Amino acid sequence: MFGSGPLTVLGGVEGIAFVKTKFTNYTDDWPDIEFHFISGSPASDGGRQIRKVHGLSEKVWQQMFKPISFRDSWSVYPMLLRPKSRGYITLRSASPFDKPYITHNYLTDPQDVKVMIEGIKIALALAETKAFKKFGSRFYTRPMPGCEYATPWTDEYWECLARSYTSTIYHPVGTCKMGPYWDPEAVVDPELKVYGISGLRVADASIMPTLVSGNTNAPVIMIGEMVSDMIKKYWAGKKR
């Protein structure tokens, strides 16, 4: 049986691909771009929800996406893997009820921008293949508002596009870094115990010193299972 309707779409991402750009260090065993293939665009729902999730301004919506409202479309989003840019979190006050300051620093490292531009180019080349052309697929040529200063389809334009329309993919890590006691940035030790505080461990994506290439769900499950074994071993030793 084949169903239809919104609940038959697996979260809106029907395909993924990992690729290496020309900037990849080929001595490393991981790609630097992940593609998300989406059967739609921010205009697919006529501006009801997707534009809000993506944080699109009224100007960007009206000029770029509203003209193709409810039209059949597909999108490919290049995801920057293992970025070099680093953000940080600082406390707003001594009160635990005050939200912290989060400084993302996306695309502050020039290498990240170069990789993103190359990822966009690979995505465009992919969209020009026979496999997509046989479905009548064609590039949407309306320029991104705010990038009028750049010649369309140049590296300067793609950089503007990336900086104007880029978002997180919800997988931040590293704010409670695991590391040796002599590392000034380390928050937890190899058993995920917080330095300087008795009886407290952290067991989530924040303990990863660096970001993995894929989604963080499976690694976090592994972290949780490992620390649960550590805790059981600790209390088993106490009982003896």
From TrEMBL:
Pfam families referenced in this protein's UniProt entry, alphabetically: GMC_oxred_C
GO-annotated molecular function: flavin adenine dinucleotide binding; oxidoreductase activity, acting on CH-OH group of donors
Species of origin: Penaeus vannamei (Whiteleg shrimp)
Domain Glucose-methanol-choline oxidoreductase C-terminal per the UniProt entry, residue ranges: 83-224
Signal peptide: none
Full protein name: Glucose dehydrogenase
Family: Belongs to the GMC oxidoreductase family.
